């Protein structure tokens, strides 16, 4: 009988002693982890190639094994009618089945769907907009930042390490910040006013650099501040586009038009901003992953992919308005 096969017995024996706290702090987990590290790590063959390629260590593998053995035992207790047994989080994450070394394969897949949405949307947009369009370069930069952020997201959900975590969080903040920056350039017509452009660019750049610097040098990674910062950026972005869509708010939606002029598609960005806000509800209503595969966070990644395509369609439609063409002539 392989040594690793003892893990279910250890987990089952200690489950009644588990304390009502985070899974990785529970006594049952700590004892299982110690048993595995002592008896499995020093006597087992090399880890499988996919695990080694994904930077798994023997200790990481022990954590994974103990987490799932305890979760198996918990689910068995619930099936027998014990409603007090519930699935715990471990190191801040729900237990997921790994695939080829990927910790959260569903989130990896859906991150790649968002990556494809940016690639497809960016190509479509760049083909449609003329080389001299004032917003073309900004939209191209947003595409590249979006591609980068979803690559980092896929890496982070493949393996959660301090490096991949920072890459994911910082690249996501850059993408959200640039989306806000881009809508500011578009709605404030900063592309035609150098002083306005300089002030807006300096404001956004300073805010992002300050955020990243603080997150990088803080004694502990400040998850709460990171959420506040990104939510604030996303809210401002959505409010700007909502203002664009409210016909009673008068401002120059196009530079050469009066403040009361409304474009035929004026309602679209407001609708997309509302859809985007509703999509974030998946992040608020967290739940243990269905069959240890799909959780609320992965569903959020799933629904943002089609919304991204719709954003590209709107921005392209806006960029093709006849007023832009007359401006370039």
Detail the topology: elements first, then pairings.
Layout (H helix, E strand, L loop, with lengths): L6 H8 L12 H13 L9 H5 L4 H22 L25 H24 L7 H23 L3 H26 L6 H24 L5 H23 L22 H12 L1 H4 L11 H24 L2 H7 L1
Describe the protein:
This protein is mostly helical and 329 residues long. It has 2 domains: 77 residues, no CATH class; 224 residues, Up-down Bundle (Rhopdopsin 7-helix transmembrane proteins), CATH 1.20.1070. Helix content is 65%, strand content 0%. The chain is elongated, with a radius of gyration of 24 Å. The chain starts with 6 loop residues before the first helix and ends with a helix.
Q: Please report the distance between the alpha carbons of the first and last residues.
A: 79 Å
CATH level-3 fold name of the largest domain:
Rhopdopsin 7-helix transmembrane proteins
CATH architecture descriptor text of the largest domain:
Up-down Bundle
Overall pLDDT score: 86
Query: What sort of overall outline do the alpha carbons produce when their principal axes are compared?
Result: elongated
Computed CA radius of gyration, to the nearest angstrom:
24 Å
Give me some keywords for this one.
329 residues, mainly alpha, Rhopdopsin 7-helix transmembrane proteins, 2 domains, elongated
Question: Briefly, what is this?
Answer:
The chain is mostly helical and 329 residues long. It has helices at residues 7-14, 27-39, 49-53, 58-79, 105-128, 136-158, 162-187, 194-217, 223-245, 268-279, 281-284, 296-319, 322-328. The longest helix is centred in the middle third of the chain and has 26 residues, at 162-187.
């Amino acid at each position: 009988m392989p040594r690793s096969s003892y893990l279910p017995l250890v987990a089952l024996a200690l489950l009644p002693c588990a304390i009502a706290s985070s899974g990785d702090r529970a006594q049952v987990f700590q004892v299982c982890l110690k048993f595995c590290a002592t008896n499995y790590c020093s006597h087992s063959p090399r880890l499988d190639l996919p695990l080694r390629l994904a930077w798994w260590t023997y200790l990481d593998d022990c954590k994974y094994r103990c987490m799932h053995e305890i979760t198996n035992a918990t689910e068995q207790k619930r099936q027998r009618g014990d409603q007090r047994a519930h699935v715990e989080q471990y190191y801040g994450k729900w237990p997921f089945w790994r695939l080829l070394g990927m910790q959260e394969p569903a989130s990896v897949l859906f991150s790649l769907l968002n990556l494809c949405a940016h690639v497809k949307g960016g190509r479509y947009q760049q083909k449609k907009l003329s080389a001299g369009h004032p917003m073309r370069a900004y939209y191209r930069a947003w595409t590249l930042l979006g591609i980068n952020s979803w690559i980092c997201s896929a890496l982070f959900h493949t393996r959660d390490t301090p490096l991949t975590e920072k890459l994911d969080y910082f690249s996501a903040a850059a993408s959200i910040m640039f989306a806000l920056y881009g809508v500011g350039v578009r709605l404030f017509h900063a592309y035609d006013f150098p002083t306005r452009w300089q002030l807006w660019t300096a404001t956004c750049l300073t805010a992002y650099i300050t955020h990243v610097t603080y997150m990088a040098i803080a004694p502990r990674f400040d998850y709460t501040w990171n959420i506040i910062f990104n939510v604030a950026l996303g809210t401002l972005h959505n409010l700007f586009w909502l203002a664009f869509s409210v016909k009673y708010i008068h401002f120059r939606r196009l530079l050469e038009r009066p403040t009361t002029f409304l474009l035929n598609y004026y309602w679209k960005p407001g609708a997309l901003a509302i859809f985007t806000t509703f999509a974030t509800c998946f992040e608020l209503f967290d739940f243990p992953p269905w069959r240890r595969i799909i959780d609320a966070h992965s569903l959020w990644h799933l629904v943002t992919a089609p919304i991204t395509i719709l954003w590209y369609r709107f921005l392209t439609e806006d960029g093709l308005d006849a007023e832009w063409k007359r401006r370039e002539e």
